[in-house]
Amino acid sequence: MAVCGSRISQMAFHATPGPHERSILSAAQPFYHSSSTAAVRRDFEPDRPIGYGAFGVVWSVTDPRDGKRVALKKMPNVFQNLISCKRVYRELKMLFYFNHDNVLKALDILQPPHIDFFEEIYVVTQLMQSDLHKIIVSPQPLSSDHVKVFLYQILRGLKYLHMAGILHRDIKPGNLLVNSNCILKICDFGLARVEEPDTTKDMTQEVITQYYRAPEILVGSKHYTSAVDMWSVGCIFAELLGRRILFQAQSPVSQLNLITDLLGTPSSEDLKYACNGAKSHILRMPHKPPCLSALYNLSSHATHEAVHLLSRMLVFNPDKRMSCTDALAHPYLDEGRLRYHTCMCSCCVNTPSGRQYTSNFEPSVEERFDDGYEDGINTVYQCKEALHKFITERHQGSSVPLCINPQSAAFKSFASSSVASTSELPPSPQPWD
Ligand SMILES: [Zn+2]
What kind of architecture, by CATH, is found in domain 130-356? Predict the structure, then answer.
């Protein structure tokens, strides 16, 4: 979805009446206005909110340069503390680094004001109509083909992230955006980080929505890997099949109990990453046998192949859990791959002699994501300066920069919308302490 590719005419921006006064976005150079926009604007859609994540508010808006609908995300309270500031900088760096059809990427970012007035950041991304959570809870029927093509795209996007060295750490249905053509994109990188190769370094356990949280995090492991995302994918695969959350518990301890009800009591080897409190909790309970055959009861789509793949993802020990690349090699995904590359992808093309398939169905990255830019950022002001420079430099290209239209009525409610910053999020104490 190009935001700046259309021909630009010299029509005075302010001379065009109508929707412009209502649009949140405007072009920063008033004499530039796309000639094609007037026609597109006949079926003008008002700007409206579409989602509220933990770290931002998202609106569906029109790009004034080409009349296309895009998503505008406001990142508020960026400079409250060093943690939130660095997290936003990391998310933006990632959004501009991504280049994959199953991962949401940034299309543009609004010009920042002078650094003394720099408080909020507005980023433009592709607009998607729905997400997997809304689809799962809707009455819309989900065929076996739907499940396969969704799961294929989740794994295809996640393989790209893991090859880039990025752990998403909040894979859940609400963070998997879907458009009307069933194209799926992984979004929300507010909790993402690069892998930690040093296993002696502690990583935060305040990650991943509880229902999708891997057992190693529930048992208090101080270090974890990309396998945490694969656990979440297993939970989502089961949810797509059964149309209900697989492990839906009230607390982290009962979450762990539900998992061991299905997988059985883990062996001592499988508990090697657990803290002592979690180990004694598990060993105090009566021994549970595994009952993976219950997965056949999820739905009529739970075939042998589906249950085989699912049971390789839902493995207690992260070292024995299937990786993304291995999952993509499973025969269950062959049909999803074929469907995706026959009529949904952008990597294969139709030619007079038939469909020309790509040589690499699940591409990796050319270069891993490098978080070395964070070195030397030790204060909020240093982070603010670095962010300001990063955004300003993105505007040194040839496209017409975007800015907020302060005349827009919708902007007033957008500007006043805000969400809890991290410092206000409820703490998630370790139950084993
Ligand atoms: Zn393709």
Answer: Orthogonal Bundle (1.10)
